[in-house]
Amino acid sequence: MKLSEILIKKMTNNDINDILLLEEECFTDPWTKKMFEGEMEHENVYYFLAKYNDCLIGYVGFWDITSECHITNMCIAPSMQNNGAGTFLMKYLVKFCRNKSINTATLEVRRSNTVAINFYLKLGFKNEGIRKNYYTRPTEDAIIMWINF
């Protein structure tokens, strides 16, 4: 796969069913259709899809909260991980944020998700704290990560 062949597009309600399939594949506590529909109702919420050969391979979503990017979701299909697709999508997000004069981002990640933690560290995020029992199914602490860009 060539990264230049990945298409990034803004999510619409028509994309939710495809996202739900990816959520089920990747997360122990996936978001529901109603949750994504609720996200789409807010003007300061952005979701971007990564597509390759017209297939959804990942997505990222964030809230613009007082000119800070709060990343709510990041997901890359398991078959597409470790080939640069996640980095490509995050670089798109950073560029989009900079164009909106957003220069910081935060997110939470499961304490046990060392693959994701290492991915974010590689991008320049730093561990800044813990949210106790943030996740369910299973119950687990979240590591709070921040980056300035």
Fill in the keyword field for this structure:
alpha+beta, 149 residues, 7-stranded mixed beta sheet, Aminopeptidase, single chain
Explain this structure.
This protein is of the alpha+beta class and 149 residues long. The chain has one domain (3-148): Gcn5-related N-acetyltransferase (GNAT) (Aminopeptidase, 3-Layer(aba) Sandwich), CATH 3.40.630. The chain is 29% helix and 39% strand. β2 and β3 (55-65) form a beta hairpin. The protein is globular and about 40 Å long.
Order of helices and strands: EHHEEEHEHEE
The CATH class assignment is: Alpha Beta
> CATH superfamily, called what?
Gcn5-related N-acetyltransferase (GNAT)
> How much strand?
35-45%
State the CATH topology. Answer: Aminopeptidase
* Count of distinct strands: 7
Arithmetic mean of pLDDT: 96
CA-CA gap between termini: 28 Å
Instruction: Please summarize the sheet with the most strands.
Output: 7 strands, mixed
Q: How many domain modules?
A: 1
User: Number of helical runs?
Assistant: 4
User: How does CATH name the architecture?
Assistant: 3-Layer(aba) Sandwich
Strand order of the largest sheet: 1-2-3-4-5-7-6
Spans of at least 5 consecutive residues whose pLDDT stays below 50 are none
Q: Return Rg in Å.
A: 15 Å
Helix content: 25-40%
The rough form would be described as globular
**What class, by secondary structure content?**
alpha+beta
